[in-house]
UniProtKB/TrEMBL annotation:
Domain of life per record: Bacteria
Keywords: Membrane, Transmembrane, Transmembrane helix
Record-annotated membrane-spanning stretches: 87-105, 125-144, 156-179, 199-221, 228-261, 273-291
Protein name from the UniProt record: DUF1700 domain-containing protein
C-alpha cells in the first residue's frame, strides 16, 4: 500500500468515525445505511482518481453533513424539543380553560380538600383550579436536557391530581396532553412514526365514536342526524390518521377544542364523556400533526 493510499484510508476512516459518532441518535439501520452511502461515495471518488480529502470535502464537514442527514430523516433535536414545548403549551391552555370550567361549577360553593378539614372559598377556588395550568407549564421553563424529565414528573403529578382531588376529572385532558408531550417526541425522534403508532392513535380516535354509536344502538340515549354525522366524521378522521395524513391531526385537534367548548356551554349528563373525548382528540390530533411536521433542513451555504 502506497503512502498516498494509506493517507486516503486514514482520512476515510476518520470521516466515517466522526459521522458514526454524530449519528448515534439514529436507529442502527439508519446509521448503517448512511455509513454505507459514505463508503460508496469514497469508493466512487477513488475510481474517478480523486483523493479521500477531495471526497470528504465534497460531502462537507462531518457536523454539517450529519445535520443534513438528521434533518432529511426527520431527526432534528430542535424539532423534538419544539414538539414537546408545543404540546406543553397546549396542555397549559387547556388547563386554564378547565380551571374556568371547574370554577363555574362552584361559583359560590366551597371546595373541600381530600383527607383534610381545609376548604377553599370564593376566588380562592379559581386560583386553586389554576394550579394545574402552572404545573403543566413548568417543564417549558426547564433546560432542554432536563425538559423530558420534568415533563414525565408533571405527567405523573397531573394524573395524581385527576385521581385524588375534587373535580379532578376536569383536568384529565391536561394529564393526557402531558403524557403526549413526553411520548410523542420519543416516537417521532427518528422521523415520522411507524405504522403501528399511526394505527394505534387512529383507533383511539374512533373509540369515542364507536362507544357513542353502541350506546345509541342499545338505547342508552338517542342520537340525531348530527350525531350520526359526527360519529362518521370521527371514524373517517381516525382512518386518515392511521394512514398518516398530516392535516387530519389538525382537523381532529380543532374538533377536540369544539367538544370542550360544547361541554362547557351545554353541560348535561354526558358532559364527562364529551369533555374527555375532546381532550383525547386534542392530544391525539396535536401529536399526530406535530409528529408529521416537516423538518427544517439546514442550509448548505
Amino acid at each position: 500500500m502506497t503512502e498516498r493510499t494509506t493517507m486516503n484510508a486514514i482520512t476515510e476512516d476518520a470521516y466515517l468515525r466522526d459521522v458514526g459518532k454524530r449519528l448515534r441518535a439514529l436507529t442502527p439501520e439508519q446509521r448503517d445505511a448512511v455509513l454505507d452511502d459514505v463508503r460508496a461515495h469514497f469508493a466512487e471518488a477513488a475510481d474517478a482518481g480523486r483523493s479521500a480529502e477531495q471526497a470528504a470535502e465534497s460531502l462537507g464537514d462531518p457536523a454539517e453533513f450529519t445535520a443534513r442527514v438528521r434533518a432529511e430523516l426527520g431527526h432534528d433535536p430542535a424539532r423534538v424539543d419544539r414538539m414537546r414545548r408545543t404540546l406543553l403549551w397546549i396542555a397549559t391552555g387547556v388547563a386554564v380553560f378547565a380551571a374556568m370550567f371547574a370554577a363555574f361549577w362552584r361559583p359560590d360553593d366551597s371546595l373541600p380538600m381530600p383527607n383534610s378539614q381545609f376548604e377553599v372559598h370564593g376566588f380562592g377556588i379559581v386560583l386553586w383550579y389554576l394550579i394545574p395550568a402552572l404545573i403543566a407549564a413548568l417543564p417549558v421553563l426547564a433546560s432542554v436536557r432536563a425538559r423530558a424529565v420534568f415533563t414525565g414528573a408533571v405527567a405523573i403529578l397531573l394524573t395524581a391530581v385527576c385521581l385524588a382531588f375534587p373535580d379532578g376529572w376536569v383536568f384529565a385532558p391536561v394529564a393526557v396532553l402531558a403524557w403526549a408531550a413526553l411520548g410523542t417526541p420519543v416516537v417521532a425522534r427518528h422521523g415520522r412514526p411507524a405504522a403501528g403508532w399511526r394505527i394505534t392513535i387512529g383507533t383511539l380516535t374512533a373509540v369515542p365514536a364507536i362507544a357513542t354509536l353502541a350506546g345509541a344502538l342499545v338505547g342508552s340515549f338517542g342520537i340525531d342526524i348530527w350525531g350520526v354525522l359526527i360519529v362518521a366524521a370521527s371514524v373517517g378522521v381516525g382512518v386518515l390518521i392511521a394512514v398518516g395524513t398530516p392535516w387530519a391531526g389538525i382537523v381532529l385537534a380543532v374538533g377536540g377544542v369544539a367538544l370542550l367548548i360544547e361541554s362547557a356551554l351545554n353541560p348535561g349528563y354526558l358532559t364527562l364523556a364529551v369533555w374527555w373525548a375532546g381532550g383525547l382528540f386534542i392530544a391525539v390530533g396535536a401529536s399526530h400533526a406535530l409528529a408529521h411536521s416537516r423538518p427544517r433542513t439546514p442550509s448548505r451555504g
